[in-house]
């Protein structure tokens, strides 16, 4: 096997921690000797063993001496004390000869110090193995650890003619089961899911993650005037699934009605009559919410793009045509005035999902004065 093949094994392991390690990164590690993987591990849950120590625990349990072996790890080993001791110490103590690293860790507590410590102890370190794939795995962590702000993904499903519903408002279902399963994986991946009150009123969604052994994200409803029905699915289940309703100035009695049901209500100044999304992201960052998946309609989609909070767009395109001049589109609002002002996507990827197509890319950040 080649170095990239071992790193792919580590990447596959790392993804097993999705939804359970936030706000930590997903990390996988494999230990190799004479072309054979002798142990492996990954970061299973926030506060648990890191990937390297998980792999060493397997060695210790099996009585395997890994002295002189190679280690492949998707992220630079940590070198500081947190909920777990430094992984660099474990690598040195277990006599690893060579370490192959996917991503450098942008955490200021690490940021090159981990690999430097290994080299200072005579361990050969090779960096950048499958770097793009390893970086993509932890794009959420990279933004959060360097800015303190959530990584924001704007997601929507639309037809070939750009509709998210028929002219009647009916929208179930635009994409097929494979694409919808993929969406639930993204809900698992993100710490929070956000919609506007219009989506709640139109669809009465649950906004949960329907993956076995998955974790439901925090549900955030942007509802300036507190129009979310008390008998909606979201409010009725807010004692079981964490729910945050963001409003403007509101009557304390009305707020209390939601809080009695289990919702948390955040009252904050609005911006032009709508939720101040930049201020909301700052609040969520302080609450250790590292990522937000926006699944709202066109109004929220435009507001998110216009406010500059969107990092990534995921557009699921179904091979269908709805038509209808009044049928809703994924991004509404005023829109841009000229083509040159369009929001552009870079680092694009296209994935086929059993007939549907997923187009995703990072929003190119630029001044929009």
From TrEMBL:
Documented EC number(s): 3.5.4.26, 1.1.1.193
Role of this protein: Converts 2,5-diamino-6-(ribosylamino)-4(3h)-pyrimidinone 5'-phosphate into 5-amino-6-(ribosylamino)-2,4(1h,3h)-pyrimidinedione 5'-phosphate.
Source organism: Ruminococcus albus SY3
Binding site for Zn(2+): 50, 78, 87
Active site residues per record: 52 (proton donor)
GO molecular function: 5-amino-6-(5-phosphoribosylamino)uracil reductase activity; diaminohydroxyphosphoribosylaminopyrimidine deaminase activity; metal ion binding; NADP binding
A GO BP annotation: riboflavin biosynthetic process
Chain positions recorded as substrate binding sites: 171, 187, 203, 207, 210, 295
CC cofactor: Zn(2+)
NCBIfam families: eubact_ribD (TIGR00326), ribD_Cterm (TIGR00227)
Matches recorded under Gene3D superfamilies: Cytidine Deaminase, domain 2 (3.40.140.10), Dihydrofolate Reductase, subunit A (3.40.430.10)
Keyword Zinc found: yes
Pathway terms, separated by semicolons: Cofactor biosynthesis; riboflavin biosynthesis; 5-amino-6-(D-ribitylamino)uracil from GTP: step 2/4; Cofactor biosynthesis; riboflavin biosynthesis; 5-amino-6-(D-ribitylamino)uracil from GTP: step 3/4
Catalytic activity: 5-amino-6-(5-phospho-D-ribitylamino)uracil + NADP(+) = 5-amino-6-(5-phospho-D-ribosylamino)uracil + NADPH + H(+); 2,5-diamino-6-hydroxy-4-(5-phosphoribosylamino)-pyrimidine + H2O + H(+) = 5-amino-6-(5-phospho-D-ribosylamino)uracil + NH4(+)
Domain CMP/dCMP-type deaminase: 1-126
Keyword Hydrolase: yes
Coiled coil region boundaries: none
Entry keyword set: Hydrolase, Metal-binding, Multifunctional enzyme, NADP, Oxidoreductase, Riboflavin biosynthesis, Zinc
Family: In the C-terminal section; belongs to the HTP reductase family. In the N-terminal section; belongs to the cytidine and deoxycytidylate deaminase family.
Protein's name according to its UniProt entry: Riboflavin biosynthesis protein RibD
Binding site for NADP(+): 157, 173, 199, 224, 297-303
Cofactor: binding comment: Binds 1 zinc ion.
Domain of life assignment: Bacteria
CDD domains: Riboflavin_deaminase-reductase
């Amino acid at each position: 096997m080649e170095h990239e093949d071992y790193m792919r094994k580590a990447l596959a392991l790392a993804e097993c921690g999705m939804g359970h390690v936030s706000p930590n990164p997903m990390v996988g590690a494999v230990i190799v000797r004479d072309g054979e993987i002798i142990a492996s591990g990954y970061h299973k849950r926030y506060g648990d063993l890191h990937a390297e120590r998980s792999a060493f625990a397997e060695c210790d349990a099996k009585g395997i001496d890994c002295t002189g072996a190679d280690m492949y790890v998707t992220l630079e080993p940590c070198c500081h004390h947190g909920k777990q001791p430094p992984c660099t110490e474990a690598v040195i103590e277990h006599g690893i000869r060579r370490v192959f690293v996917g991503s450098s860790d942008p955490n200021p507590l690490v940021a090159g110090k981990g690999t430097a410590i290994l080299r200072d102890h005579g361990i050969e370190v090779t960096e950048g193995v499958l770097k793009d794939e390893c970086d993509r795995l932890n794009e959420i962590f990279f933004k959060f650890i360097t800015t303190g702000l959530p990584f924001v993904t704007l997601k929507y499903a639309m037809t070939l003619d750009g509709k998210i519903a028929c002219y009647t408002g009916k929208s179930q279902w635009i994409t097929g089961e494979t694409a919808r399963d993929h969406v639930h994986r993204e809900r698992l991946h993100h710490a929070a899911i956000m919609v506007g009150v219009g989506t709640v009123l139109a669809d009465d969604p649950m906004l949960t993650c329907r993956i076995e052994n998955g974790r439901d994200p925090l549900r955030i409803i942007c509802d300036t005037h507190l129009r979310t029905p008390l008998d909606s699915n979201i409010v009725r289940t807010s004692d079981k699934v964490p729910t945050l309703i963001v409003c403007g100035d509101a009557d304390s009695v009305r707020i209390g009605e939601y809080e009695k049901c289990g919702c948390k209500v955040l009252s904050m100044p609005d911006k032009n009559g709508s939720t101040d999304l930049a201020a909301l992201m700052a609040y969520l960052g302080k609450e250790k919410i590292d990522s937000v998946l926006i699944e709202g309609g066109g109004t929220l989609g435009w507001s998110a793009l216009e406010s500059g909070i969107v990092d990534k767009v995921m557009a699921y395109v179904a091979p269908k045509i709805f038509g209808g001049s009044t049928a809703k589109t994924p991004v509404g609002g005023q829109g841009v005035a000229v083509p040159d002002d369009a929001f552009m996507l870079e680092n694009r990827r296209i994935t086929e999902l059993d007939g549907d197509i997923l187009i995703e890319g990072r929003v190119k950040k630029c001044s929009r004065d």
